[in-house]
Amino acid sequence: MQTEKRFCQHCGKPIQGRPDKKFCDDACRNTFNNQQNAVTTNFIRNVNHALKRNRNILSELLPEGEKMAKTTRDKLNLEGFNFRYFTHIFQNQKGNVYHYCYDFGYLALENNWFLIVRGKD
To answer: Residue 43: is it exposed, middle or buried by C-beta count within 10 angstroms (0-12/13-18/19+)?
Structure first.
């Protein structure tokens, strides 16, 4: 009985062993799967990095022990804040919409001013 020759999906070397084996070793399997997931993983990594940077910027602009502070759009932009990324939105009873980056939020005010707040536990 002659079996069909199979080759590794990553490196192309001949495979020996189980009939359903697709890779010659664990390294080829891991490399193949990492390459398949690279685009999705990079996107998620970039978004998480932007969210973390936004949170750190808000944290640095809010003095320790204070519940709120004001800053300008120019200051946020200068620090590298990216307004496209936030984790959630909160609307209070007055209708004000706060955008949060984890536990720090901001509220757009008049004339490109922003109110920075620390979220409640």
So the answer is: exposed
Return the HEC string of the chain: CCCCCEECCCCCCEECCCCCCCCCCHHHHHHHHHHHHHHHHHHHHHHHHHHHHHHHHHHHHCCCCCCEEEEEHHHHHHHCCCCCCCCEEEECCCCCEEEEECCEEEEECHHHEEEEEECCC
From first to last of its 121 residues, the chain has per-residue pLDDT tens of: 456 788 999 899 999 888 899 999 999 999 998 888 887 888 999 999 999 999 999 999 999 889 999 999 999 999 999 999 999 999 999 999 999 999 999 999 999 999 999 987 5
Q: What is the length of the chain?
A: 121
Separation between Cα atoms, residue 111 and residue 121, nearest integer Å? 30
Q: Are 102 and 94 in contact (CB under 8 A)?
A: no
The residues near 28 (Cβ < 8 Å, ≥ 6 apart) are 8, 9, 10, 11
